[in-house]
Amino acid sequence: MPETKSTCPYCGVGCGVIIESEGAQITGVRGDPDHPANFGRLCTKGSTLHLTASPAVQRSARLLQPQWRRKRGAAPQPLGWDAALALAADRFADAIRAHGPDSVGLYLSGQLLTEDYYVFNKLAKGLIGTNNVDTNSRLCMSSAVAGYKRTLGADAPPCSYEDLAEADTVFIAGSNMAWAHPVLFRRLEDAKRARPEQRWIVVDTRRTETAEGADLFLQIQPGTDVALFHGMLHLMFWEGLTDAAYIAAHTRGFEALRDAVRPWTPKEAARVCGIAEADLIQAARWFAQADRPGEAPGATLSMYCQGLNQSAAGTDKNAALINLHLATGQIGRPGAGPFSLTGQPNAMGGREVGGLANLLGAHRDLANPAHRAEVAALWGLPSVPERPGLSAVEMFQAAADGALQALWIVCTNPAQSLPDQATVRRALERCPFVIVQEAFGSTATVAYADLLLPATTWGEKVGTVTNSERRISRVRAAVPPPGEARHDWAIGVDFAHRLEQRLPDRLNGRLNGRTTLFPYALPEQAGDDGRSGAEQIWNEHRESTRGRDLDITGLSWALLDEMGPQQWPLPEGEAQGRVRLYEDGRFPTDDGRARFSAAEFRPVAEPRDARFPFALTSGRLRDQWHGMSRTGTLGRLFGHVSEPVVEVHPQDLARRGLKDGELVRVTSRRGSLVLPVQASDRVAPTLAHIAMHWGSEVLTGLGTDGTPIPGVNGLTNPAFCPGSKQPELKHAAVSIEPARLPWTVLVLAWLPQAEALAAREALKPLMGEVAYASCVPFGREPHALGLGGVLLRAADTDARDAAQAKQRLDWLDRVQALLGLGGPQALSYADPRRAHRRVIRLAQNGNAGQVLQGLLMAGDTRAEAWLRTLLEDEQPVQAYGRLLLSPGDQPPVASAPRSPQVCSCFNVSEEAIRLHLGGCAGSPEDRVTGLQAALKCGTQCGSCLPTLRRLVQQVEVAA
């Protein structure tokens, strides 16, 4: 069986994978034991990658040919590639001639390869002549970029993964590593196991899985990070815990910072943060290694992610944390330094080629005339545009205001991921010409496209990516692209050739005898899988880094193929890349010194008030990725968290008279959302939490004014950081009130996998006709018969009259038909007057007898728990007969309720774990080891290990 080494397309850890394939089909995936990022480990998402490339997914979810909507709202029609790219070039050329180059915009993705990024950056800034090219990395890492540049002089994470094992104190702020970067968290757990004296400090607004393992947990109020860091630094100054020699030799701005933090006594900082003063003091002393007098200095490593970045004060938060490292000399040494954890697989690569509206390639600044001249010379042009382009939020606001004539969206889903979805969708509706270049046809943004261009995805692409530790890895194709899908960079190059022909005046005298700015071999010209052209692009990018802080002139694809992934910088003449930056105390600034940042504390952009008394935060789920266009095709990845909920503290539920599972309406100043409420002591009182993944693809309905609800980002705040222009996605002020939707519907059905995916797409228009609807897959492990589960939940007001009751019944008829719940094998009950209905569809399951294949309950869903258990576990139901139509919440025949899933890899439930622990003895770690040996949970990806440890602790306390 052929095997191909490549890289995982999910988070910024950058895990190596080995892809197994047969012919044109990917059949398996496992971790690459030789890759230095993961050494063979994969998380739940990575270990199921091959399932997202199944024939069922390819048929039902992939875009396989170009399509064109002749008018908005119409069904897209197939189009050949020549006609599609000619149309695109004509519309862009017309807009540029009539309205100027800044009338168009390109919105890219941190999931693109470096070569893709380079081409589209050059297309915008070199050929079109606009800096209106930005990326969803703006939503992810731009505050980290700005924070590094403000303090250290360049966007370069100074640490490496091996520093996790060297650190004495690990300071994790605004990152749930256990779920967001699980393989890296496994390495941190290994380090703690090898050195139990290693201390973890975790700072977060929620008690996450990461916080469960902390030696000190600081559960701060949203947006108070700068106050916390200033308070810690105040104590360090007061107690003499700073490194005066390092400050004098390697930094500037110390006096201004000292004055800025003087008011932030530990008492005042703790008050603002909502934590104990003693905990803040402990954190400061541990960070400064104050308990090691006379010994070799200890090492402190900080790791941080979106909790710091996604904020209207994101740059200040990043810089304030880096202040702590500079003040204590905790940088440039093994186990020490500020380590920003990249959210997306190639956000780093995009930053390297200047793929943001305010950057140029190789970490050059757009505002610097010398840097602009260098890029122009590299491209053989007299100049590149100097005016900063529109960042992500600004770009869509401009389109909503009618200022953009054409918008090209590549490998991202802004109709799910950007804040203030009402504005985003108005932008997509108003912009005269929208191109969406995508691999998956199920994203919310696809519905707004005039032109759809099918792109390759994981397992088909060729190029490079850079992970969080500056390590460049090769991405290789295991199978050919399906249908007519093309590489992203190749689409951009083919388009550029056509635009050059339509805008010859833009190139007059600029090409110096060349025929094109894009002389890269397209796959069909080179007769290969795209390697030739991609390597040419990468070589051009490599040359642009010569003499820069990220110099990779000593690298080549041949070296990467021979030696494996390498870190930058690796200049020509060097044998290997640099593991750690700033070891000599010199920084890439004009005088070689780092800069302290004396930023003032600013509260959240949208504080709570009487109308909106809750602070809403967002975060990731363990088994899902971003908008779920890929992970959302697999039922087994919904086993851990199966449906969208809003988490609220039990005290707040009791205070408002709400019950766990009740539908509530969450409302911000921008929109509202209906979903079940879940009691959770992980959030503090007056806080609420919703996972970031629930877009309108799976969660929708109608607002109180009758407008569609566009998922969780219909609530979030577009206010952005002035330094990084990263929006405050992590916080919004909301109200939470009972939704009062008594007419409820639950539908579950097993269907062939391809039909299940198609049914979910067909259900989307129906979901928008009721006040609340969510639709997700289910099925905790691959079905023996290749079936996929569809779960639809809906709710609305009671029918006011016979006409509305009939409307509800018609809606149920359409749902029932789409999911095949009729026929002679179905049992049914109906009350047309109240629009109540129950339908049970049975199927023969070999010698096991009859099992439930589908069910529909409308108007009365009290029987959900036991019926859902029977259906999902495929238990024999001969003993029930027509009792399956019983409406009550108690099963007519004794049956055990379904236990929550803990381990996705081996489908191990919480009940099975608790039963095993009942007979276990020994230390907590011995009990975890026993669980792993007996049930295999925690032995593959390890993502469930924090939960296993928590269950061990709970069982011990109960005993």
UniProtKB/TrEMBL annotation:
SMART domains, sorted: Molybdop_Fe4S4 (SM00926)
Keywords noted in UniProt: 4Fe-4S, Iron, Iron-sulfur, Metal-binding, Molybdenum, Nitrate assimilation, Oxidoreductase
Keyword Amino-acid biosynthesis set for record: no
Cited PROSITE patterns: 4FE4S_MOW_BIS_MGD
Pfam family, one: Fer2_BFD
InterPro entries to which the protein is assigned, alphabetical: Asp_de-COase-like_dom_sf, BFD-like_2Fe2S-bd_dom, BFD-like_2Fe2S-bd_dom_sf, CT_Nitrate-R-NapA-like, MoPterin_dinucl-bd_dom, Mopterin_OxRdtase, Mopterin_OxRdtase_4Fe-4S_dom, Prok_molybdopt-oxidoreductase
Residue ranges of domain 4Fe-4S Mo/W bis-MGD-type in the record: 1-57
Alphabetized PANTHER family for the sequence: NADPH-FE(3+) OXIDOREDUCTASE SUBUNIT ALPHA (PTHR43105:SF9), RESPIRATORY NITRATE REDUCTASE (PTHR43105)
UniProt family annotation: Belongs to the prokaryotic molybdopterin-containing oxidoreductase family. NasA/NapA/NarB subfamily.
Protein name: Nitrate reductase subunit alpha
Species the sequence originates in: Sphaerotilus microaerophilus
Source taxonomy: Bacteria, Pseudomonadati, Pseudomonadota, Betaproteobacteria, Burkholderiales
